[in-house]
Design goal:
alpha+beta
Length: about 700
Amino acid sequence: MSPSEIDALRQRLRELESENARLQALFAADAGKRARAETALAESEERYRTLFNSIDEGFCIIEFFDGPHGPLSDYVHVEANPAYALHAGIPSVVGQKVREMVPGEADGWVELYGGVLRTGEPIRFERELVATGRYLELAAFRVEPAERRQVAVLFQDITARKRAEAALQEINDTLEARVVAALAERKLLADIVEGTNAFVQVVDTQYRLIAINGAAVQEFGRVFGLQPKIGDDMLELFKDLPEHRAAVRAVWSRALAGEEFVAVEEFGDPGRDRRFYEMRFSVLRDAAGRQIGAYQFAYDVTDRLREQTRLHEAEEALRQSQKMEAVGQLTGGIAHDFNNLLTGILGSLEMLQTRLRQGRFADVDRYVAAAQGASKRAAALTHRLLAFSRRQTLDPKPTDVNRLVMGMEELVRRTVGPQIALEVVTAGGLWPALIDSSQLESALLNLCINARDAMPEGGRITIETANKWLDDRAARERDLPPGQYISLCVTDTGTGMTPDVIEHAFDPFFTTKPIGQGTGLGLSMVYGFVRQSGGQVRIYSELGQGTTMCLYFPRHYAGAVETSDPVRAGAAPSSRTGQTILVVDDEPTVRMVVIEVLDECGYAVVEAKDGPTGLAALQSDARIDLLITDVGLPGGMNGRQLADAARATRPDLKVLFITGYAENAILSSGQLAPGMQVLTKPFDVEALAARVGEMVES
């Protein structure tokens, strides 16, 4: 190698060494930069990671990929901070695909974030994550470069805020609706009050008007010539009408004292018009419940009252017409039956008189019997009429209805015949009733006969007793006061009654039986007796099924139950002397008959034609063992007053009332006083003698 070549090589080597030194220097400088860059990068990454994990908001990076639904149709979470699970409610989200996490919502999320990836424009929005039920506020931007297919999402849970906003909106909507409704209601009420035909006035506690509707203003002007306005003193308005001022003060003072009431008064200037007003007063209170005044709704009821008066007069006229029609029907029936009976009586007496003149005494007994029979039938007819009119003379005593029913069972069985099955059902512990037992026996027998006649082909009759406690509703249905009652019901399996027959069943002389087979007084007599005893009768019937007749009597709370003494009741009178009986009756024929009977029995008799004459005899020193008196007497003193006056001086005096009419003066609290009895006219002389003997002997 030549020196020049060596020198060149050495030069080249020096150059290489210099270049190598320079390169080594450069390399050493680059290593320091790289180390510093790596250190800075590590520090930056640490700061990022600390920030990433520490921020309150949820943060994630999603990366799109091509899925089964097409290009960029799915994405996976490649990073997520701990706050993600806190805000979204989905844990361990890294590595999860959106279509696997929330398949029902995936299309919407892919569309939103796909738009950010395609356009590079960030978005902010609010959306509900339906899967967890949370509302999220989100911000999303693309991670550059676009080829990375990544989008960063920052979000936070705003569920509480959204709910508060919804609640607030609901409150606002409700409040607005309430305000609108209140305004509409107030306007509606104002329109109603202003448009009504009622006269509305409101005053404060000082009688000052605080509200008045147009109708009231117009009415004031029409009847008083006044034009009231808000703020006027009600009393001052009537200063020139003192009569009305006093009336206005009277009604308004009651309302201002706290009373709520309805009053009907007449107002108006006599020179203008006077009208009747129905006024309804109510108390006006503030929000705290304190009374601050009163208000009135008034209506002109003049025409209504006049119409009511006219209607009442028309109803009275109709009732009077119906009464006259009923009286005509009753009179016709009585006249028909009594003419038949009087024909028998008069004919028998005339024939008796003829036979006596002829000296033919063989037929005397037959004519006497015929006259007596007709007389007894006339007495029975009168008794039935009095029962219907609730004026018969009753002898009520505490009665065991069960014992009465069982005592009549055999008689009823024989009366209805073998083709009728009879069943008696008595209630245990039946309460007593204050009734006339003989009248109840007659009523029960009458009902059973009617039941038999309703079953011409045979059937069943059931007699049943029961205790009944009637409440307000049940009592109203039976037209009775609420309380305790006993019931006596007779049920048949007969033909039943139509509603029209039920309606008229208790009318006098009404009957569905053929002519000559019924008087039409049976049920009317039962009805009259039950009503006079404080009870009620009800009919329950269905055509083809049968009928139930129920008698209701009030429960009796005091007194011993009546028991009969058949030996004593049937005892015949015996002649006795030494006793004196006072007979008081204004009918000479009756006095004559009674005196003759008593004389036949051996009694001494004193007679009087009226109450004062009888009282004079009773206040004398004469011995009187028994007073027999009619109840209806002339002279200003009836029989009961005579008996009471006599007992003032003769407290042990026994009294026998003979009457054909149940004057209220006979009874006291529904019962006769001890030592007093009643004998109903007409009566047999044997019955009179037996009753007198019983009373004098006792």
